[in-house]
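BUG: 3D viewer hangs when loading the predicted structure for this chain

Environment: internal workstation, default settings.
Expected: structure renders.
Actual: progress bar stalls at 90%.

Input used:
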Amino acid sequence: MTTRKILVTSALPYANGSIHLGHLVEYIQTDIWVRFQKMQGNEAHYVCADDTHGTPIMLRAEKEGITPEQLIARVWQEHYDDFSEFHVEFDHYGSTNSNETRESAEAIYRTLRDKNLIEVRSIEQYYDPVKNMFLPDRFIKGECPKCGAKDQYGDNCEACGAAYAPTELIAPYSAVSGAKPELRNSDHYFFKLSADSCQQFLRNWTRSGALQTEAANKMQEWLGIEGENKLSDWDISRDAPYFGFEIPDAPGKYFYVWLDAPVGYMGSFKQLCNKLTHPNPPNPPIPPLSGGSQSGRETDTPPLARGGWEGLFDEFWKAGSKTELYHFIGKDILYFHALFWPAMLEHAGFRTPTKLFAHGFLTVNGEKMSKSRGTFITARSYVDHIKNTEYLRYYYAAKLNGSMEDHDHNLDDFVTKVNSDLIGKYINIASRCAGFIAKRFDGKLGNTDTAASAEFQTAFTGGEIARCYENRDFSRALREIMRLADVANQYIAEKKPWELAKQEGKDAELLEVCSTALTLFRDLTRYLKPVLPKLAAQVEAFLNIPPMVWNDKWAALSSGHVINTYQHLATRLDPKLVEAMVAANQESLQPQPQSEQRHAAHQQHTASIEVAQAEKDFEPFISIEDFAKVDLRVAKIVNAEQVEGAAKLLKLTLDIGEGNLRTVFAGIKSAYDPENLKGRLTVMVANLAPRKMKFGLSEGMVLAASGEASGLFILSPDDGAQPGMRIK
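Structure tokens produced before the viewer hung:
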């Protein structure tokens, strides 16, 4: 088997706030995937870093009376500790405020400049007359010029997704002082994203398979049709005072944080390369505290001495690299990662990402995370109250399917899922059988019932669970694993070892049953190890076996193998712990100062995003007779496919229980990958008059929800509904 060489990153958390449950969706998802790759024997490196530059950092440090370097060092340690609690195992976790990131950012900038892709021009920019500073886009607010939503940031609208210049905002105001900003002229540096070479490259790259289908569709909307130039040049500079890297040969001008933030992937990997080629690296990897400034001064530490790490870095980052590069991100930062970032890399002589893996937002109990309801929960608060962080890893994995769909963390379902799956099905296998081995057979296993383990052998050799992990369809992988757990529990229930233990002459059968059960428990643990690494290590110690990898040939635990005394591996999740966590978050509400608000859309990976909702009147009332005229039916999506030549449509083949399948053309292409729709249940208007369209006859309509916030969501009935059921 050929060993793959893989570099993996997650989006960089901003060094101006705590890690919360919404952030953890991404880092847990990435960690599971990387652990699986390593279990496969692949060379996989997982790097990340704190995103440390920008005006919010500068203003918060100023308010606290400390330097920005002191602030980001403190937050870095908090982030590192939180990730460690949730077993997110980075090969290196660094900081964008490093010499390595500065070096890479400057090199990219100089190459783009030499290729005439950097342009300097004077622009009118908003200036805060109270704070005496030019205002970054994210510190100007006003009404969106496209949809009219209020309190939108100066670079893009979170209600409709439009991008624009801050000068286009209606009724702008400074988010720093509240003052009405003044327009003043300043020279700014632009990356010429509108250049023909960038436009053509992006058209090709976004269709190359590097993006999920729904993400690629969204990119085509932003790029426009062939020959249409919809991308604007990208402003990559900011004026002093600013905490960041000064642009070479441009005193008083600094790289915009969104230029050096993704370059932080490269900087963090450089630090890893240096660590791998030098003995005795520090643990944990404390980031440098220098590197960014408001004054343009030199860093306090000398530049990294170049050494043997260069070859390893080039192997993963230079153009033409045969290695694999994957970015796990939230869908809200697709614009930056699928347009700006690959265009920068391509034209600076570096490789582009193999794939971007975008995920959706997190809601809690079906709603945005809320401080008033106590559902805006930090990583630290979870640890303090529930403690076992692998419960959350398991629950998130059970929700993730590799798509950009949003995910809901229902707190009641969380408790039920953990207790029914992990405790009731999985842990139950060992707890029911291990004691007999210790008490009756001196901890030594016997023969295994090969017929009982047949399904487990098939699952291992068939590779379905491995394929699900590879495709990030963790929810399907866990469903299959829990199906096997049911098989194991059924075997135990049929054999009744507790009754065999009471019968004379049944010791041999009792030993075989318990030995078989523990072999099956070993197999389940192997499959769960990417999700539950700490628990897997405990099981390996209990079973007295070496760390399990994926490519082991299947074999039963051998007869005579000695296991250790069983100790409880996990306990049921008490709902009162969850209730206490929610209550504690409600009790500790404190107003958040403006400087602590998240400054970049790419850090708002959860439903905590502030979306300005326009006030709307309800539609006029209708009678029950009017409603009864609409025949709403549960429909099963038998097939979903692209429609050639259609920008927004998917062709759905639906079963509504009438014997014949129906065809519906639905405008949901930008939101859903057809493959992820197959087999789902949805709601259909069954008595809508058929409509003849360019692409064929549409025989009804599926229902979907949308609003001022971005996103389109088809409706789904609860479990147990059947095709053809009428909704009333």
